[in-house]
Write a structure and sequence with these properties.
The chain has helices at 10-19, 33-41, 61-67, 82-95, 108-116, 124-138, and strands at residues 2-6, 25-30, 52-55, 74-77, 100-104, 120-122. By secondary structure, it is α/β, with parallel strands linked by helices. The protein has one domain: NAD(P)-binding Rossmann-like Domain (Rossmann fold, 3-Layer(aba) Sandwich), CATH 3.40.50. The radius of gyration is 16 Å and the shape is globular. This is TrkA family potassium uptake protein.
C-alpha cells in the first residue's frame, strides 16, 4: 500500500515507523526539516528504512503531487492543526481522488461536522475522554 502521511510529529513519525517495510511504501511530509531529524535521531527510522521524507506544506497540491499523491492509496493528515489536516484531507479526497483519507481533528465539534461530510477522522480529545471514563468505570 502507498501511504502518504502529512505531519512528522509523534503520531506521524510513529505511523511511518510502524508501516515502513510491511508491504507499504511510506512518504511523510512536514513543513519543518528538523522534524525528520529529531525522530531519526531517536531511532524510529533505521538504516534500512524505506520511508521517504518530503519537506513542504501538506496543503500545497503541487507539493503533494511531488510527494506521490497521485499514486497514493491512503493519506493520513496528522499535523498539529485541525485546519491543515482538513485541508490536506479534502485536497486528497476531492482533487486527487485518494480512496482512503483519515484526518486527526482535535476539536470535537469540527470532527463531527467533517464526519458528516464523509471525511474519515478521529478526535484524540473524544478518544482520550472515553478511555479515561472507561478506565475509572472499570475500577469501581
Amino acid at each position: 500500500m502507498r501511504v502518504l502521511i502529512v505531519g512528522c510529529g509523534r503520531v506521524g513519525s510513529r505511523l511511518a515507523s510502524e508501516l515502513d517495510g510491511v508491504s507499504n511504501e511510506v512518504t511523510i511530509v512536514d513543513r519543518e526539516p528538523s522534524s525528520f531529524n529529531k525522530f531519526a535521531e531517536r531511532g524510529l527510522f533505521g538504516e534500512n528504512s524505506g520511508v521517504r521524507f518530503v519537506v513542504g506544506d501538506g496543503t500545497d497540491a503541487e507539493l503533494l503531487r511531488r510527494a506521490g499523491i497521485e499514486e497514493a492509496d491512503c493519506l493520513i493528515a496528522v499535523t498539529e492543526g485541525d485546519n491543515r489536516n482538513i485541508m490536506a484531507a479534502q485536497i486528497a479526497k476531492h482533487v486527487f481522488g485518494v480512496k482512503r483519507v483519515v484526518a486527526r481533528i482535535y476539536d470535537p465539534i469540527r470532527e463531527e461536522t467533517y464526519r458528516e461530510m464523509g471525511l474519515d477522522s478521529f478526535c484524540p480529545t473524544i478518544e482520550g475522554a472515553n478511555l479515561v471514563r472507561q478506565m475509572i468505570s472499570d475500577s469501581s
